[in-house]
Amino acid sequence: MVDSPKRLVSRITRDTLALVLAGGRGSRLRQLTDWRAKPAVPFGGKFRIIDFPLSNCVNSGIRRMGVLTQYKAHSLIKHVQLGWGGNHVARGEFVELLPAQQRMNDQSWYSGTADAVYQNIDILRAHESEYTLILAGDHVYKMDYGPMIAYHVEKGADLTIGCIEVPVDQARAFGVMGIDREGRIESFVEKPDDPPRMPSSPDSSLASMGIYVFRTEFLFEQLILDADDPDSEHDFGKNVIPRLIEEHQVYAYPFREPGLTDQPYWRDVGTIDAYWSANLELIGVQPDLNLYDTDWPIWTYQEQLPPAKFVFDEDGRRGMAIDSMVSGGCIISGAVVRHSLLFSNVMVREQAYVEDAVILPNVQVGEGAEVRRAVIDKGCLIPPGMKIGVDPESDKERFEVSPTGVVLVTPQMLGQKLHMVR
Fold it and tell me: Which biological pathway (predicted)?
């Protein structure tokens, strides 16, 4: 007998195993994922995207996690080992890496999201969890998974799907659900050309967040059925979920962020434009995503670095950053940085000017260079005097330019070595 909802949530989260699907490339991020998986892409000055679902698990009381990797996973694996391998966990708590390997047959790669879980079914059985929480590893958000799992138990559901309202014109990129008044899902369409509208909000659709709660034994049964189906693509959204809706109790759970917020924060950051804007949103006085929230911290591997430094204070030679976020190890030397986010170990040299830029770690901006409205990938050495984001036609000849004019620059585009990119 439990005494309170909080205790109920605590008990069921302890009986839950979380699986983070982190094997995708994220091709819409273009060259930013040429040498790393999307979940390994840096975000927010010091984090990686995968830190957000993993931190949500820890903060929700879920301390048994598996990370399923596949595409160019070296930097992702290294980050998880450094930042999450120890994790200060007690006995029976872990973050386990589950890379694609030859386990079931001669096929070595995961052929779909459901197949990724199925190929590790023997490992999952050994963990003996009552519930399994399946998460996408490439979204940025804060969420307490405990109430969702409690909702799943209360409804007696076979599957519960985390969902969020999105504008109809954005819903084409997601799985879209139709529900009844009790929250039971009546239809599920993966990336439809004409997304179903919500009856209460005709301009919105109810989109899947890629968050699923299963009773573990039920999940195993469905994975085996799917694996035996020669016509299946072995994907949760395309195959498993549509079949379950017809035959089982499948419910939608509305996304709720910890604390009281009218509009919960959730970002796909799946394009260069979305990635650039989501990073720069963090600079705001009261951003929708509060990285300074001590009640719901985001955990990560943190390199030991000296404080950021701003040097020289002379007219025309003043090191300063205005309306910006600057990470450890950065040196702004007689240069100006405005409304930009600088990751660790960025050097901006004399007379350089940076504005509306997201600059990843270990970048050097040369003397007199100008960088505007850009994403600069890890390890780039911007030559002295180079102008980026000033002449659109010149940028298109050398770099990747997004539909809204954000310029992506990588070491390879600059003819430089790739050893620091990951």
Answer: Glycan biosynthesis; glycogen biosynthesis
pLDDT score, position 8: 52
Summarize the annotated binding site as residue ranges: 110, 175, 190-191, 208
Strands 140-141 and 266-267: antiparallel
Closest CA to 144 of 264, 278, 290: 264
Indicate if 199 and 260 belong to the same structural domain. yes
Q: Tell me the CA distances in angstroms from 392 to 225, 229, 282, 326, 395, one per residue in order.
A: 53, 50, 26, 27, 5
Identify the band that residue 102 occupies on the pLDDT scale cut at 50, 70 and 90.
low
Using 50, 70 and 90 to split pLDDT, how confident is the model at 172?
Answer: confident
Helix, strand or coil, per DSSP, at residue 280: helix
Compute the distance between CA of residue 91 and CA of residue 94 in angstroms, rounded to an integer: 8
Average model confidence (pLDDT) across the chain = 91
Q: Which CATH number do you get for residue 96? A: 3.90.550.10
**Residue ranges making up the domain that contains 210:** 3-281
- pLDDT per position as a tens digit, 116-128: 999 999 999 999 9
The pLDDT value recorded for residue 90 is: 56
* Confidence band for 101, pLDDT divided at 50, 70 and 90: confident
**411 within 8 A of 394, measured Cβ to Cβ:** no
Whether residues 75 and 181 share a domain: the answer is: yes
Model pTM score:
0.92
DSSP for 202-266, written as a single string: TTEEEEEEEEEEEEHHHHHHHHHHHHT-TT----IIIIIHHHHHHHS-EEEEE---SS--SS--E
Annotated binding site for alpha-D-glucose 1-phosphate: 110, 175, 190-191, 208
Q: In a 3-state reduction of DSSP, which class is residue 404?
A: coil
Q: Which residues does residue 254 pair with via DSSP β-bridges, in sequence order? A: 163
Domain presence at residue 397: yes
58-62, 97-101, 169-173: which is most confident: 58-62
Whole-angstrom distance, CA of residue 323 vs CA of residue 255: 31
As to burial, measured by CB atoms within 10 angstroms (0-12 exposed, 13-18 middle, 19+ buried), residue 207 is: buried
Beta bridge partners of 301: none
Cβ-based neighbours of 277, under 8 Å, separated by 6 or more = none
